[in-house]
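[SOLVED] Need 3D model of a two-part complex

Original post:
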Amino acid sequence: MYKLRPILKTYYDSLEDGKVLGMKCTDCGDVVWPPLPTCQKCGGYNLDWYDMGDEAVIDEIRYEDSSVGGDYTFRKANDYFVDKSPYCICVGHFPRGTEQFHAALYGVTEENKDELISQLPLKAKVKFIQLDGGFKSVGFEIKK
Amino acid sequence: MKQQFTRPVSVVGTSTLGQRYFDDPEYEGLSIYELWACACHQAMDDAGVKPKDIDKIVYSQFANFVTAGNAMAMVGSLEEWAGVAGKPITHIEQACASGYIAFTEACNAVASGKADIVLCAGVETPKHFNARNQPAYMIQPISKYDGWWSPGRVLFDTTYYRFDGVSDNLLTEEQGKYYQKHYGISEETLDETYNAMAVNLRRNASRNPRACERKEYTEIAKENGYDDVMDYMRSDHNPKITQYIRKSGSVLHNVAAGAIIVCSEEMAKKLNKKAVTVIDHASSSNTQRHPYCFHQMNVDVRDALYKNQPDLKGDDLDLMVTTVMTSGEQLDSAEVFGYLPEGKGYQYELDGRTCFDGDTPINPHGGDLSFGHAFGAAGINMISEAILQMRGEAGGCQVPKPVNTCLVRGMGGGHTTVGILLENQQ
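Solution:
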């Protein structure tokens, strides 16, 4: 029987405690992040909380000029970020499983981007992004 | 092609109301309700039916809560304005895919045998709104909406996706990244391709009185002192608004209403109208957290549609009509569906072969970049343009060859893609 339990609150509460949680299917072993109560591989609903660790593998770095202004349709993706430090977009995955995801990646600059891209795939630490709504989201940061 | 419904479905009527801005003097004093009524009656007149003949309405609108006085369910009012009060009506909200999904649901209603004649209609005003304490004709620019509304941002749900700092960028950049990664095309060539695409689509739109922007870029370039239109397209007059996308490559928002009448094949024969057969439809939804989800949805829809058409290759279609929110979408979808050769479609754009009078026409009406795009009504407007082309009634942008087969491919919100196959079979 499907067990009714808070998924989102547990996830965001854990971010406040410095931990990134995903979920692992006890039937097929597939891991999903961000957490979902239904397995994306087998469709089962027997999933347990799973610590994703504090590091991801970055597969692609998409460096682009995020200062270019869009029209009213496409606003800044970081509108609600408290810290407006520049970041780029990456494609990555957690070493403990999951499909690839998009995420914000800090620490890439015009000066180091070519070198970093030549080193792909590379590891990046989880960086908690403070939102002005009073909660955190997950990004990543290249080790200095 | 082999139609896939247990009960064959035909299109027998369409509206022809143009894409305009509420700032346009010809729309002074109007609200979305007049446009809705006009489109519905145009389609019913075209089909030769009266409101009493309609068995069901499927209506699409995406931003009604924001733009229409914070109304959550306008179905009763809209029915009254079209003269179909009391009939069953279904409201579809699936972002800019709403119109396409409304059409597929209208077809399903006929195919199931539950309805013989269905009115599929949509209305939307992306850039204006009426306040909750005023009647609908008192419209204001959307920039005055309390809390300022970002259509791009609202496309992401609040579970996680609105807060990752990534999703907005994906709306515009994903296809360009994919194309460069897989086909080795330089960023400069991609820029030239996107500029050529914008020029081609505007050339199409300049011949279509229903299009929103009808002045060709060649003319605009000359007005700004450029003899070569491509020099103009590369200039600061056409600035980049993201890494790949220039102003000319971004969707044009406007107000519009649209309507289509679908009915059973036997009813179409009774009405004695020029009918277009709906062969099949398919859709796929995804989330933008997945890299290249736009491309993947095209693949999923192609596979679902083409598996039932073993002889269909894509390049044997007479016409492709496809959503082009930003430039990369047209190129990616045309190649995935086999209408243009994979990895080589950019050359077709550069050579002008995708123009309405080229050998592989795409969006002869002007596409979302020049024809216009009205959110939840856009899909219906795009299908209407396909129907006009297939009937040979598109006017100045009519493809100069018989258009007997057409793929309409639509996308909305970055999370739903739809494919519809149409054919002249009668």
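Edit: Residues 24 and 31 of chain A are 4 Å apart (CA to CA).
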